[in-house]
Design goal:
Length: about 575
Amino acid sequence: MRRSILLLTALAAALWSAPSLAQSRSQLGPLCTTDTTPADQQIDACNKIIALKVFTGEKLATIYFWRAVGWNKKGNYGQVIADAGEAIKLKPDVAIYNLRGSAYYDKGEYDIAIADFNDALRIGPPSGIVFHNRGNAWRGKGEYAKAIADYDASIKAGPKSAFSYQNRGISKQALGDLDGAMADINEAVRIDPSLPQPLVNRAVIWRTKGDIDRAISDTTEAIRLARAKAPVNIMTPPGSVLISAYSQRGFAHEAKGDFINAKQDYAAALEGKASDAGSKSNQAAARVRLSLLTEPTPPAPRNTASDTPSTTPSAAEGSASPAPAPVQGQSATRRVALVIGNSAYQHVTALPNPVNDARAIAKSLRDIGFVVDEGIDLDRVQMRSTIRDFLRDAARAQVAVVYYAGHGVAVEGRNYLVPVDVALHAGSRMTDAMVEMDTIMAGLDDQVRTNILIMDACRNNPMAATQVASADAHRSIQATSGLAAPASLGAGATLGAGTLIAYATAPGQVALDGQGVNSPFSAALSRHIGTPGLEVQQMLTRVRAEVVAATKSRQVPWSNSSLLGEVYLAEK
């Protein structure tokens, strides 16, 4: 469970007790200023009070605040921010800053959220609730040490909160302290055994430890508790707990090989209404996993290199059922990779080196113990089939690497990988003919696996045939849009936790195909990826330095990481 924001309702009531409001127009006051009022009734009552135009200053701020609370119940964070902003203009207060900061947090705007929480703490007095919420925002940014410090302050200041223990445990887990994480989350369960959220988070730790049965048990109990009563915290988005619990139980069932129950859980996760970023990310992952387990894949043979055949059999050729899962515990150290190189484009400029690049990287990964699924010059059907098979198999792996070389395009901020048979025409539904990178990321997003995605994709625009043809067979030397920085990393249920994305060059820039048999990026990557004892981010730093030198600074590789610790692709 990613989210647990607490609202200063008690403080708000103490600060803004306004008897005159309770007397305004019969029951409008109580309906507007009571946190148990259903959202639509609360908003309607506040609207009517505002329309009276009889209140100003602090009392009007009170109405805007409580209308923002009503919008928050509906998950309409834009309206929360607008109403809280109006209240702050009239009467700045701890509770208002806390509420607005919480809404910014839910929108994934962590820096603005932290600024609001800072203002709340500046106004004072220091509040354990505000420390807790700022800790959540630090955790959203991946700054886990700062998050733990704020949770420590929250626990010290009180009131004693199961959520602070839970979220401190999540942060400790992110830093690799599984025992400390388990101790904190066990304390959260002890403080309030009726809360489902700590059980969902404990299930993630059980799965990380390889104890799938306990993960299933905890998520099952979390689902029961969530269905038994509504969340006690009005800042918790409706349905978010069930979405998270069903998603996590689905991951556990799939890891165990129980695909029937996994499909049922993923479908249940999709039934809820996702309003916050965490729930949306959980549903995106559930949607991809459900499609992998449900939809049959056409029996299209892989077009793999004859000297480096795929070592991972197709799990779905001619069938909707994945291959049987290994016995529990066998997958603890399993490492898998998907390597695709597309060169022989039929309708846009062919690229000389992606096939060579893919073969070189596939060999390097096999040499260090990865099970590699390799695809060469894949058309749309083959490419989608290959990716689907890989995502099915990755559900039981601890480390997954995806490497792609070939054409890639950005459309409205989303990145797409281009199969060799696609004819791209402006104005057509061109994205339907490609593979969206976000789909791959969502299929790998489950908080347990380490994911490394490496894109040595073409940075020109293959739709512009004349521009591509003038490139003289050099990949991406045209000054065109390139790929976009992935928006989904850092926003969602896992915040992209455990994921690293590397591009051959910076977003919006161009990458060279090179004069030799490999691109400058892939040549450097293949030399360093197998270095024993070299941490993956240090490895990419070496690659970056080598590419910058080889291209005379025309190309600077880029990466974005939310890895939860040091990762070594080649053992020390």
